[in-house]
Design goal:
The complex is a heterodimer of chains A (about 450) and B (about 1050).
Chain A (H helix, E strand, L loop, with lengths): L1 H5 L14 E3 H4 L3 H17 L10 H8 L3 E3 L7 H5 L8 H25 L6 H26 L10 H4 L7 H18 L14 H15 L2 H12 L21 E5 L9 H6 L9 E3 L1 H6 L5 H5 L1 E5 L4 E5 L15 E5 H14 L3 H14 L10 H16 L5 H8 L3 H8 L14 H6 L10
Antiparallel strand pairs in A: 2-4, 3-7, 5-6
Helix pairs in contact in A: 3-6, 3-7, 6-7, 7-9, 9-10, 10-11, 10-15, 11-15, 15-16, 15-17, 16-17
Chain B lengths: L4 H28 L4 H13 L3 H32 L5 E8 L9 E4 L5 E3 L5 E6 L4 E5 L6 E4 L8 E2 L11 E3 L4 E3 L7 E5 H4 L7 H5 L6 E5 L8 E5 L13 E4 L2 E3 L28 E7 L2 H4 L10 E6 L5 E16 L8 H14 L24 H6 L3 E13 L3 E13 L7 E14 L5 E17 L4 H6 L31 E20 L2 E20 L16 E24 L2 E24 L15 E25 L3 E12 L8 E11 L13 E15 L10 E9 L2 E6 L10 E14 L4 E20 L8 E25 L3 E18 L20 E4 L2 E4 L6 E3 L10 H4 L2 E4 L4 E11 L2 E11 L1 E3 L31 H11 L5 E3 L2 E12 L9 E15 L17 E11 L1
Parallel strand pairs in B: 1-7, 13-16
Antiparallel strand pairs in B: 1-4, 2-3, 2-5, 5-6, 8-9, 10-15, 11-12, 13-14, 15-16, 17-18, 17-46, 18-19, 19-20, 20-21, 21-22, 22-23, 23-24, 24-25, 25-26, 26-27, 27-28, 28-29, 29-32, 30-31, 32-33, 33-34, 34-35, 35-40, 36-39, 37-38, 40-41, 41-44, 42-43, 44-45, 45-46
Helix pairs in contact in B: 1-2, 1-3
The chains are: A mainly alpha (about 450), B mainly beta (about 1050).
Chain lengths: ~450, ~1050
């Protein structure tokens, strides 16, 4: 045995890094590869996690979980549970969205770490990449905190730290989100680094910051952040309701570039159907009926399908449900209408009633509706909430988050959702997560 | 089977020759009155049976020859009577045969003299002996025959196969061979005799139930479905780190799965390359289990080693074999589900319980949309078909004493039990050649195996849906024969069959062994192996898969293609040296290994076709993407040695060692040393036991040593980014692949074994009892991580010790051994225990809720079910920590172990004249979770027994969160664990040898075979043999065939 120990020829078993891989250090020594690392994050945001436009993204999941969509598919242990508000800690979607989100956060942290330690990247490039990564980190955390309640805020790639994290109080999570966004705003350039507004710029970070302030009741800051975007000449209010969701819309702040040439927003293929009953999900009838008849959004953003006896409805914001050779629609994450509504609410909350009405009417006019009749601040705020429901339906869970931040989930939903319990305001922390990390705790009711 | 006329003509000639030989020798025997007269009587008896004229003519011819030979003999006798008085040496010649023909390679020796020879390809021998000498005829697997030399020079012998003793059997231990009785390690073996009796296509299927300590479970009954194997328990915590090392004719064969998830078929796992091995080309399979046997494989031996030896050519006349069979297969067991009436009653009750009186518009099954009087047994519809298997194997072999060859070919087709026209075709060719130089110093052995498989399967296994679909769901086809979508009220399950999985695998393994006897006791040897696997898999996703309500066209159709090329070369030079030392014999070997494996993978997608008829053509896709294109290299190097000392066939000592280096580890961690010591004492050879009438064989053996495991994938120690499969801005992204740990190193597995092998009554009863005790530490595992780390696991050495111990019994008895009737029994039983011995820091680790020190590592923690709440009816569970809430962390603490308590097999073999009957019962004692198709009351079919089950939760249509929570906790509770033990008639084989008396060289066997014929179990969820629930269970197969040997 001793003899055997003496003989060895180490070089034979040395292998090169495989052709298809780069070491972590090399990636951030070069502008192109560092950019590719960010590219991969956006592709992930588009295809997985909360911002995905597919059946597992927040648009569908929270539309079903709240009162926007009805599930018509086969009974299963996942979508049925979301729809019936009978989620369990073991329900697949709970851990899927959790894991995908933290995977996106890991990638963002890896970019931040890589750029900070890079010697080959220029300062401008570093700022750009770190700014984008901070924006992504804040964005994903905000969805997590809204869905799961207190969540860990992850800022490192070190698994020794990340495997033992505790849940951070919601307020503290928001402090971190705001800090990240302010830093991102400082680092990001105003100009888009890529055509078609598919990469976040400074205004995108501001737009998101406006939403974060609004959710936290920081009205003045919300109003200012929204103004920063609305005053940017880059964005032009689109008055043709049929052009809002087209990829060239001038009112778009940030949208996802499609995976393949000719691909369109995933929302189209998820929501649109041609014959009834719906094969997957349909818009709830109450939602359709709550629109005013002359609301252009009712006729332009909703389509109906009938078999002669019954009629079903689907969201028709994105109309393309397949590859069109040349892409027509991209998934839009931030658009001007939301900023107007944020500012309208923020202004109303601060007593700037006429300015608030003005912002609200911008959105109403697009829908072909007359100016609002609301007079008091309460009425205007209520009108803005109503308008948000009509304007932002089936987009990234806005309806659910609005009900949640306004504390109206437990009054609005039990009426229409038989399985709703007051503890359903938070999704369960995935059981696998609790088992792997002793420092995490479960939400009440699970 | 039809015999072509040419073949018949040839047979005739052969017959004449044979008759001539038989006639001549038998009459000579009779004339010479040697003590092998039993032989001649037997043959003469058979002659008396011949009645037709042709035979009489031949008989006359024989008599003529007899007179001629008698004259000749008399001359010889004259000579010998003269020399006989002085006991002068004479040349003895003769022919050795068995019941079926002449035997080549039989050792003929003279008792007490160093004179030995072997029979040639015609079974003939010549040896110089004196009158009164005793000739000893010995041949592996046959009873020894001794003949006293009388006056005369011809001795013909018929040998009988010996079922009792395997003492002379040589087992393949990989780098060396060892006599079964002299081995110090634990090696199980099955041969082609057992393999040929089973209508199976996977080599692991052929081993199932036949080897102690080897636990094999079929993953799926779909054609080409893989098997899982565990040799002596779960060594590694990594699910994919428990594969044994496969060696085919000396070439390591990678069992790593091939293909990509995007192109996988109905199987629950990716394609297993083991399907490339054709069972009918296998001569023997040896499984090395303990340290003594596996340590020479070092880092790759921890999970055992499976040595596959393919068939070799045999010297002698050219033999043609044709073997054809047809089999039919169907599903073994299906759970009994509700009919429409029961189902609808359940649904209505569920809605009533929820206080819902108006059924929602999406509840098509109860709201009147679907016909309430319709009933379909979906299990019968989707998995109730009959799979048809046709198999044809042909071979030719022969050669001289110095050069032998074998060429065989096999073609097999298999259909499925799913509806639709799916096929699995497999063609195999095998070639072997052995050559020895005239001076016997140089030897060459070459073998090559080539298989081509084409597997066309549906991409979805319909088993799951067949168990959950409402029994009043609509018809599958409309009046025009098109798929019926019933106005999009359901996803027609047959639509999923439109997505086809197509796999083409071509696999070549070739090995050459050259050896040269440098000195009388020194041999140099080297093997050169090469294997090349090419796999192309594709899966279509035509738009017709989707509900037409989406209004999609072929521009939505897709195709995924994955290509995997894997080639390995290996060179293993070695030196063997033997000498005597005192009363003992020393065998030593040193060798080294250089191996490289290169895997290239290319995964592609095509999307958007102008027509679905172009869907198999990637070039026709309007959008093409590449998901993955990579090349991985695995390099491996080792030095190994063995020294064996055999003292007077009583005391044996075997020391093996290996120093291994693997590219799978980071710099500084690549090399490790493994070794083992084995010892045996054959106490039956001691004087005090020699010639004992009861105990015919006794051996006590023990071994201790270390082995390792490097099954962790390539490059895991590197921190790397790879291209992401999707694009953004038209660019390909780069994403981090893993959490990396440059520190991980070898894991070590310490194995101890002690075994007693005893043979009684001339080995008619042979019992092997083995106890093993293995401990693995520093385990290389994927440590599970919470999602907050961004990844699911991290490769690292786990500072924990896992113990596997167990008892294995193998009993072989010869119950009857008469001329016309033989009955033998083989029984094996394995009892294994697994235990986590230590795990420092378990409490603060991510495994804190997974493992318990002192318990097996594959435990599952469950809730303790205590019954139903008397008021709400909701299932209740023990609140272990008494905090008033049931949580998974604090209350899911009951430990369930679903690994088998024991398993084994009972095989019986009966031979009556030309008839042979074999059957194998396989048994497993285990527990498993019961069926959990979905919350009772929701639109999911349930077991029929649920309609009147006591203690059942109230039904809910899906909105009662408490009941749903109760149901899912129950699914993971003691309440849902049931007995899944089973006894199964795994294999039955009946073979009839047609009494073709005209010729001894033509043999025609008719056989009937069956697999999984009977299953006895109380398990409620269908077939109890499964690893992944809701996949097609193993099939029950009936097979009929004919084998013709010329």
């Amino acid at each position: 045995m001793l003899l055997l120990n003496l003989i060895s020829c180490d070089s034979f078993v040395d292998v090169e890094t495989p052709n298809s891989q780069l070491t972590g250090v090399t990636v951030f020594e070069d502008r192109t590869t560092a950019n590719a690392a960010l590219i991969a994050i956006y592709a992930k945001l588009r295809d997985s996690g909360m911002l995905a436009g597919n059946a597992n993204g927040s648009g569908v999941c929270l539309g079903l979980y709240a009162d926007e969509l009805t599930y018509y598919g086969a009974t299963d242990d996942n979508t049925s549970f979301i729809f019936n508000n009978t989620m369990l800690a073991t329900t697949a979607i709970a851990s899927q969205l959790w894991n995908e989100s933290y995977q996106q956060i890991y990638s963002a942290n890896a970019v931040i770490y890589g750029c900070e330690n890079s010697t080959g990247l220029s300062t401008a490039d570093k700022n750009q990449f770190i700014g984008e990564a901070l924006f992504v980190r804040a964005l994903v955390h905000s969805y997590l905190v809204n869905l799961y309640g207190d969540v860990p805020y992850i800022t490192t790639t070190d698994y020794e730290v990340n495997r033992l994290v505790s849940r951070m109080p919601t307020a503290e999570v928001y402090t971190n989100i705001i800090a990240d966004l302010q830093q991102a705003i400082a680092l990001l350039p105003e100009a888009y680094v890529a055509p078609e507004r598919v990469r976040p710029n400074r205004s995108t970070a501001s737009a998101f910051l406006a939403r974060v302030y609004l959710y936290n009741g920081n009205w003045a800051e919300a109003s200012n952040a929204a103004s920063a975007v609305l005053n940017n000449a880059e964005y032009v209010w689109e008055t043709d309701i049929d052009k809002i969701f087209l990829k060239d819309c001038t009112a778009t702040i940030w949208q996802f570039s499609p995976n393949l040439v000719g691909n369109n927003a995933d929302e189209g293929s998820v929501f649109v159907f041609q014959t009834g009953p719906p094969p997957f999900v349909g818009l709830r009838e109450e939602l359709y009926n709550s629109f005013a008849n002359d609301d252009l959004r009712k006729s332009h953003w909703i389509a109906s399908v009938t078999d002669g006896t019954n009629t079903w409805y689907h969201a028709n914001k994105y109309k393309q449900n397949t590859n069109t050779g040349t892409s027509v629609e991209y998934s839009i994450v931030f658009r001007l209408a939301e900023q107007y509504l944020i500012r309208a609410e923020a202004r109303a909350r601060q007593g700037e009633l006429s300015n608030a009405k003005q912002d609200l009417d911008m959105v109403r006019s697009l829908a072909g509706l007359p100016n609002t009749t609301a007079m008091t601040s309460e009425d205007i705020i209520a009108a803005v909430q109503q308008e948000r429901r009509f304007e932002l339906f089936t987009e990234y869970g806005h309806r659910f988050f609005d009900l949640k931040r306004n504390g109206t989930l437990n009054t609005a939903l039990p009426v229409v959702k038989l399985g709703w319990n007051s503890t359903d305001v938070h999704w369960p922390i995935p059981e696998t997560e609790l088992l792997a990390n002793p420092n995490l705790t479960q939400n009440p009711g699970y | 089977m039809d015999c072509p006329s040419t073949a018949l003509g040839m047979t005739k000639i052969t017959n004449k020759k044979a008759l001539y030989l038989v006639g001549k020798t038998s009459i000579e025997d009779w004339t010479n009155k040697t003590n092998v007269s039993f032989n001649s009587t037997k043959i003469m008896n058979k002659f008396s049976l011949y009645k037709d004229r042709c035979i009489i003519m031949v008989c006359c011819l024989c008599f003529q020859m007899t007179f001629a030979s008698r004259e000749k003999k008399q001359e010889a006798r004259g000579d010998s009577s003269f020399v006989g008085m002085t006991k002068i040496q004479q040349n003895i010649t003769g022919v050795v045969r068995d019941a079926t023909g002449v035997l080549t390679g039989v050792t003929v020796s003279i008792k007490g003299k160093p004179i030995t020879t072997i029979t040639n390809e015609n079974g003939q021998f010549t040896i110089t002996a004196a009158e009164g000498d005793v000739l000893v005829f010995s041949f592996i697997g046959y009873k020894e025959v001794t003949v006293r030399v009388a006056v005369g020079s011809v001795i013909n012998v018929t040998m009988q196969e010996d079922a009792t003793t395997l003492k002379e059997v040589v087992v393949n231990a990989g780098y060396y061979n060892v006599k079964d009785k002299e081995r110090t390690g634990s090696i199980s073996k099955i041969t082609s005799k057992d393999i040929d009796k089973q209508p199976v296509t996977n080599v692991l299927a052929a081993m199932q139930g036949r080897m102690a300590g080897v636990d094999i479970v079929q993953d799926s009954g779909s054609p080409g479905g893989a098997f899982s194997i565990k040799i002596r328990g779960t060594n590694s915590l990594r699910a994919d780190g428990n594969q044994p090392l496969y060696i085919i004719d000396g070439v390591p064969y990678s069992s790593e799965t091939i293909g990509s998830i995007a192109t996988s078929g109905t199987a629950p796992s990716l394609t297993s390359p083991l399907n490339s091995i054709n069972p009918s080309d296998i001569e023997s399979i040896e499984v090395l289990k303990d340290a003594d046997a596996t340590a020479i494989y070092g880092s790759r031996g921890a999970n055992g080693v499976v040595l596959i030896t393919t068939k070799k050519g045999k010297a002698g006349k050219t033999t043609f074999t044709v073997n054809g069979s047809t089999s039919v297969g169907s599903v073994t067991r299906t759970p009994k589900l509700m009919n429409t009436q029961e189902y609808l009653a359940m649904r209505q009750q569920a809605f009533a319980n929820d206080g819902i009186s108006v059924y929602p518009d999406f509840a098509y099954d109860v709201n009147g949309t679907w016909d309430a009087n319709r009933y379909t047994d979906w299990q019968k519809e989707f998995i109730g078909g009959t799979a048809e298997v046709n198999n044809l194997q042909a071979s030719v072999s022969g050669g001289s004493a110095k050069t032998q060859y074998l060429l065989s070919g096999n073609y097999r087709t298999e259909t499925t039990v799913f509806p639709g026209d799916f096929k699995y075709n497999k063609g195999a060719a095998h070639f072997n050649m052995n050559h020895t130089s005239d001076d016997d110093k140089f030897k060459l052995a070459f073998s090559a195996n080539y298989t081509a498989q084409k597997n066309n399967q549906p991409a979805t296994d319909l088993t799951a849906i067949s168990r959950t679909l409402a029994p009043n769901a609509p018809a599958l086809y409309d009046a025009d024969g098109n798929l019926n979508w019933e106005n999009s009220t359901w996803d027609n399950p047959l639509a999923s069959l439109l997505s086809e999985f197509d796999s083409n695998i071509k696999d070549l393994t070739a090995n050459t062994v050259l050896s040269y006897q440098i000195l009388k006791n020194l041999q140099a040897k080297s093997s050169f192996g090469y294997s090349d696997l090419k796999s192309t898999e594709s899966r279509t996703q035509p738009h017709t898969l989707y509900n037409p309500a989406f209004g999609l066209g072929s521009e939505f159709s897709g195709l995924s293609v994955s290509q995997t090329d894997r080639s390995t070369w290996i060179i293993e030079p070695q030196l063997n040296w033997t000498t005597t030392l005192g009363k003992g014999k020393v065998e030593a070997l040193v060798g080294s290994t250089f191996q490289q494996q290169k895997t290239n993978r290319l995964f592609m997608n095509g999307f958007g076709f102008s027509s679905n008829s172009l869907i198999h053509d990637l070039a026709s896709a309007s959008i093409k993407t590449i998901d993955l294109s990579d090349e991985t290299i695995y390099k491996y190097q080792a030095f190994f040695a063995r020294i064996n000392y055999n003292w007077n066939e009583r005391y044996l000592l075997n020391i093996t060692g290996r120093r291994d280096g693997s590219s799978r580890f980071g710099p500084g961690k690549q090399f490790a040393t493994f070794g083992a010591v084995g010892a045996a004492w054959i106490f039956s050879n001691e004087n005090f036991l020699k010639d004992n009438s009861v105990l015919s064989f006794g051996k006590l053996r023990t071994s201790y040593g270390t082995t390792g495991n490097d099954q962790i994938g390539d490059y895991q120690f590197l921190d790397t980014y790879a291209s992401s499969s999707s694009t953004y801005q038209g660019l390909i992204g780069l994403q981090p692949i893993r959490l990396f740990n440059p520190e991980f190193g070898w894991e070590t597995n310490r194995k101890f074994e002690v075994a007693l092998e005893t043979g009684f009554l001339k080995d008619r009863l042979f019992l092997t009892t083995a106890y093993y005790f293995n401990r693995s530490s520093n385990q290389l595992v994927g440590i599970p991580l919470p999602g907050t780390t961004g990844f699911g696991s991290l490769n690292a050495n786990l500072d924990a010790t896992v113990e596997n111990s167990g008892l294995e019994f193998t009993l072989r008895t010869v119950n009857f051994q008469r001329k016309d009737f033989e009955w033998t029994t083989n029984f094996n039983l394995s009892i294994s225990r697994n235990k986590l011995i230590s795990y420092p820091g378990l409490e603060s680790s991510t495994n804190a809720n997974r493992f318990v020190v002192g318990q097996p590592i594959n435990i599952i923690k469950v809730y303790n079910y205590i019954g139903m709440n008397p008021t709400t009816g909701v299932y209740e569970f023990e609140d272990v920590n008494g905090d008033g809430v049931i949580t998974s962390i604090d209350d899911r603490t009951q430990i369930a172990d679903l690994s088998p308590d024991f398993f084994g097999g009972l095989q019986n073999n009966f031979k009556y004249k030309n008839l042979q009957l074999d059957f194998l019962f396989q048994f497993v004692k285990q527990e498993a979770f019961g069926p959990t198709p979905g919350v009772p009351g929701t639109a999911v079919n349930q077991l029929a027994s649920l309609s009147n089950a006591e203690g059942q939760q109230p039904l809910t249509s899906g909105v009662n969160g408490n009941l749903i929570n109760g149901y899912f906790r129950y699914a993971q509770s003691t309440g849902n664990i049931e007995n899944a033990s089973y006894v199964r008639l795994k294999n039955l084989s009946l073979t009839y040898d047609l009494p073709l008396k005209k010729s001894k060289s033509v043999r025609c066997q008719l056989y009937l075979q069956g697999q999984n014929l009977l299953t006895f179990t109380n398990y409620s969820n269908g077939d109890p043999e499964f690893k992944f629930s809701n996949y097609l269970p193993p099939l029950k197969v009936y097979s009929a065939g004919v084998k013709l040997t010329l």
